[in-house]
Amino acid sequence: MTSAASSAAPAVSFEFFPPKTEKMEQSLWQAIERLAPLRPAFVSVTYGAGGSTRERTHATVCRIQKETGIPAAAHFTCVGATREEIDSIARTYWEAGIRHLVALRGDPPESAGGIGGRYEPHPGGYAYAADLVAGMREVADFEISVAAYPETHPEAPSAQFDLDNLKRKVDAGATRAITQFFFDNDAYFRFLDRCAAAGIHVPIVPGILPITNFARAVEFAGKCNASVPQKLADTFDGLDSDPETRHLVAATVAAEQCQALQAQGVNDFHFYTLNRADLTVAICRMLGVKAKAAAPSPAPAA
Ligand code: FAD
């Protein structure tokens, strides 16, 4: 897919994780206060491995939507729960006014090795994300997003199997895919072409990871099957003890990646914010997404 570049400011969405402590809660809300004026299409809140953040995810999603008015999506996984339990959690979201779910298989719990560990479907649970999407469709008329992997999910037996799996998720009712983060735009564009050829026609929104810690990003990329171009490694080389330069470089690198995508017609971006606003705000500005001014207060009566 390489449609003409659009001059309209892109639609953006922001992903957060549920805070564990009071201090983390404060930094999340500081981030939300800076990001909310950018008027994202939606925000989403992750679900900890093995369902470990069920209540915190619920509380965070509901609070963000209530206090900012921005549609908030709850991530949801198949791990560690029966279908009845998952359906009942979904119903509580619907009753709380949450209309968008990000339906995932989920990573194995830490006890089973976490990311890259061995996944065992829960007996009586939804086995894979496609099953979860179909189940959520039965619960209520949710908007459902799913995960996609431009460089193939690490456990997939083949790239074709993984593509067929994405098609199953869309056929089951997903209306948007959000990609695993990637640094190689060509891999994303090749993936879009393969999706189109496979008859997958929902938006495949690129997931963008602004790099706050390069060593950790490389480690995570290894687990997720995201390649790290040598040029990127060279750019961050030697900056471990220079956080200020690293930060400027991180903003530039991610903005360049997004601008290159935008130049090829991409007009939706999902940011893995890691609950920090600064890099995402800077990158959004480079893409033409600026804070919307608050409505002027009425003039005082004479
Ligand atoms: P699936 O689509 O079910 O696929 C998982 C693997 O199983 C793939 O390799 C697929 O090819 C294979 N597969 C599918 N169906 C079958 C079958 N019938 N038989 C055999 N193999 C099959 N994880 C969390 O724990 N919490 C989160 O909040 C979270 N948010 C995420 C958000 C995004 C945007 C992304 C990209 C990932 C997120 N993850 C999250 C990580 C995700 O849970 C993992 O990548 C997980 O390993 C796969 O989830 P999935 O929904 O892609 O699974």
TrEMBL record:
It comes from the Bacteria. Its EC number is 1.5.1.54. GO terms for biological process: methionine biosynthetic process; tetrahydrofolate interconversion. Pathway: One-carbon metabolism; tetrahydrofolate interconversion; Amino-acid biosynthesis; L-methionine biosynthesis via de novo pathway. GO terms for molecular function: FAD binding; methylenetetrahydrofolate reductase (NADH) activity. Keywords: Amino-acid biosynthesis, FAD, Flavoprotein, Methionine biosynthesis, NAD, Oxidoreductase. Pfam families: MTHFR. Belongs to the methylenetetrahydrofolate reductase family. This is Methylenetetrahydrofolate reductase.
